[in-house]
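Appendix B, example 12.
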Amino acid sequence: MSSPILVSLALILSLPFVFFFTQHLLPQFSPDSDDLSLFHRATTTTTTTTAHTTNHLSTKPKIAFLFLTNTNLTFAPLWEKFFTGNNHLFNIYIHADPTSSVVSPGGVFHNRFIPSKLTQRASPTLISATRRLIASALLDDPLNQYFALVSQHCVPLLSFRFVYKYLFKNQLLSLASFTANDGNFLYPSFIEILSDDQNLNERYNARGENVMLPEVRFEDFRVGSQFFILNRKHAMVVVRDKKLWKKFRLPCINVYSCYPEEHYFPTLLSMEDPNGCTGFTLTRVNWTGCWDGHPHLYTPEEVSPELVRQLRVSNSSYSYLFARKFSPESLAPLMDIADDVIFRD
């Protein structure tokens, strides 16, 4: 009789240590109440406009640029040139890892930081950060109709005017149409969606074999680029989702195949609205000679007018509008060719 009692007593006494271990040593991926409140408000708040704005049918939709970073925005001067003169056509939102001492670059980036939380590779924290950015942009301005996710290593390859016209195809709807369509323009989302990745099985089972079932079947699992441009309809899908997030928030066992931010968004949108997505990202990445999951890092010696022109070209019907990954030292040569090459379409 004493043996079962001792075992039970030992288990009870060990509970505080188990609690401490799970709370302080293992990564925590549960969304906090403030996240849940933000997502709820972003998907339930009715977007309204003032009578003054409604009477101006020439009001144009905007692009929300979502900067996801854990370092200072080294390329802020280049982006400043990109944005100059187009203040009525864009908004900026920055999610900076709070553990890094990111300093505001000022200019168009002034006062554009949103409340942020820790981000970490091989964890769902990058998904959460992206969802915070999208939710903040949804709430901030009903005219935000495209949501472009970029990193601190991303640079523009063309002028803002070109990017804007390229995305909206010069068929800009008036605010009257905007209201009639419940705030959703019928433009496609530009997100890479792949089903033929050679490591698809390993990525699918990174949390354990068949752990993703029943919400995500292997035949529905997709991979793609971390960076994308979503329309407002799909932005709402991302922020509203609970079903798939329940699975993708689980910690990975095999961290070498764990890239949740490259799996969650392509899988979700492929399952929800595959016909509304191009399946192609507009951010060029060079995976030649990649290491530890990182793409090629362009150095100052590689920056040239010819490189910019090459990076724009794709084997798809779509052109690349942005590119990564550039070293901080590349800023100077990029600024040298900004006016004559990058922003001269």
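Residues 2-24 form the longest helix (23 residues). Residues 15-29, 47-58, 170-184 have pLDDT under 50 and may be disordered.
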